[in-house]
Amino acid sequence: MDPLERVTWALRRTELAVQALKEQRLRSLDMAVAHYALLISVHSEPGLTGAELARRLNVTPQAVASLVARLEGRGQIERREHPRHRHVQELHLTDAGRAALRAADEVIDGVERQIVDSLGPDAGAQLRALLDQVAEAVREG
Questions:
Q1: CATH entry, 18-140, from 1.10.10.10, 3.30.499.10, 1.10.8.100, 3.40.50.2000
Q2: How far are the Cα atoms of 58, 96, 131 from residue 127, in angstroms, in the given order?
Q3: Where is the HTH marR-type domain (predicted)?
């Protein structure tokens, strides 16, 4: 099979195109996709540590530390001491972080609508189901 005809290549091309569109649209908020991913992760699981975030986002702890420092500098993230482990810092959104996340969610929702509108609701739901199946298949190894 031609490598460019593989499903995995189609997934990669699609991911790159979606990421580029999200980066372009989030730029109006002075936000990168990586910042959005961090904000939504901390929103979903308040109290995550940097190491936990690195695993969830599939990036290095150093990359997370840099992102956290930038968002902390913007007043969107705050570090709090872990209740049982005083050397561990938990991450939490601030009010400014929640506001930034709401604004970014509106932008990302527009990207989602653009994709689903071009496919139609039935095909959009089918694509979502197929992508869930792909994720499950690769998790099973």
A1: 1.10.10.10
A2: 24, 34, 6
A3: 1-136
